[in-house]
Design a protein that fits this description.
The protein is mainly alpha-helical and 219 residues long. It is built from ten helices and five strands. Among the domains are: 77 residues, Multidrug-efflux Transporter Regulator, Chain: A, Domain 2, CATH 1.10.1660; 53 residues, no CATH class. The protein has a three-stranded antiparallel beta sheet with strand order 1-3-2.
Length: 219
């Protein structure tokens, strides 16, 4: 099944010039051209363009970074739930960070293998095919600074406990939203991603700020 340029434009809200730019940059497959002035795109192009927009608008990725993400990750855009999982995998950093060895990485962050295993067991780091995820590399940098403060361990455990509880609710809500999206417009996916990627960190950081403000105002 193929879709015309006009359909792709109306479904994604993107202009003709933007779509042609995506093709030029390798983010979209070259359309087939059965006749002059007729461009036919693959049926997964709508999902692909929506993911590009999400990466640009919500996470402020550059075109170069998005192209690298597409090169590093294989996406199946045909299934709603699978796409959600793949997008969330992407946002938590499934592509590997390239060090010559794990020992070199640990030396860079001044962490031992025992400390790493402790963080892995706690659930504040993740591994992907024997490599840390990209997001975890940034966490390693932070954890290397925090390890001298024992009191942070209790806070990390609280983060993990809350995250696990929220993950259950997020999954259940995500499935419900997709089932209710009878038109197949994928609006449910966009709503879910806005909730998880935008509102969740905002709400958490908001209440951290409010608590600090409240404590500072207490006489």
């Amino acid at each position: 099944m193929s879709i015309k340029m006009a359909t792709l434009m109306s479904e994604t809200g993107e202009t003709r010039s933007t779509l042609l730019f995506y093709v030029k940059e390798g983010l979209l497959e070259e359309p087939s051209k059965p006749k002059p002035n007729v461009h036919l795109y693959t049926d997964d192009s709508i999902e692909r363009v929506r993911l590009i927009k999400t990466l640009q608008n919500q996470l402020h990725y550059s075109i170069t970074q998005i192209k690298q993400i597409f090169d590093d990750n294989k996406f199946d855009f045909s299934s709603g739930v699978d796409v959600l999982i793949q997008k969330l995998d992407l946002f938590t950093g499934v592509s590997q960070k390239h060090f010559k060895s794990m020992d070199e990485a640990l030396q860079t962050y001044n962490l031992s293998k025992d400390e790493i295993n402790e963080y892995l067991n706690l659930g504040v780091l993740s591994m992907y095919q024997d490599y840390f995820s990209d997001a975890s590399w940034k966490s390693l940098e932070v954890l290397s600074e925090l390890k001298s403060c024992d009191k942070t361990f209790a806070l990390l455990k609280a983060y993990v406990k809350s995250a696990k509880e929220l993950a259950v609710l997020e999954y259940e809500l995500g499935v419900q939203l997709i089932k209710q999206d009878k038109e197949g417009s994928n609006k449910a996916q966009e709503l879910f991603l806005d909730l998880v990627l935008t509102l969740k960190p905002y709400i958490f950081n908001l209440h951290t700020k409010l608590e600090h403000t409240r404590r500072c105002n207490v006489k």
